[in-house]
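It is worth pausing here to work through a concrete case rather than discussing structure prediction in the abstract. The textbook approach is simple: state the sequence, then state the predicted structure, then interpret. We follow exactly that order.
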Amino acid sequence: MSSEATIEDLARAADDAGAALAEDVNDLSERLAPRQLVDEALETVKTRGLSLARDAGSTIKAHPIATGAAVAAVGLALYAGSRIAKAELDIDRDLDGYTDYEDTALVSASGNARIDARELVKENPVVAILAGVAAGAALAMLFPSSAAEKRSLGALARRITNR
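Step two, the predicted structure:
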């Protein structure tokens, strides 16, 4: 028998490679099926979301003042945003002679960002509140409990956490 491959050997090798490729494509299509991706994502959210919720809850219990301040800040920002959206500005002709630089692009960009953020909050107020709570929890994790917090809210925290 010669060491050179025959056409039949090459054809068999090509068929084997094609079958292996088809098997890999089938495996990949099963793993990337939308239903499979959704199931994996939900499972990840369940396992990690529960621990994240526990951590957030313990952080909120450990730092109630910081969390309350963050929630109040978000509420104040939402209130101020709605008040500002309804405000009218009449600058008349006071700025006609002001020509130091051209700022229309800057005003346009910042105005668009404010409008986009305002619309996002209007369309999703619950998401905005949850983002504020999450931001408060994140800020609360950065700061240790102060002596004043422990002194004024220690008994309440122990009753809430049943410790």
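Step three, interpretation. The mean pLDDT is 75. The longest helix spans residues 34-62.
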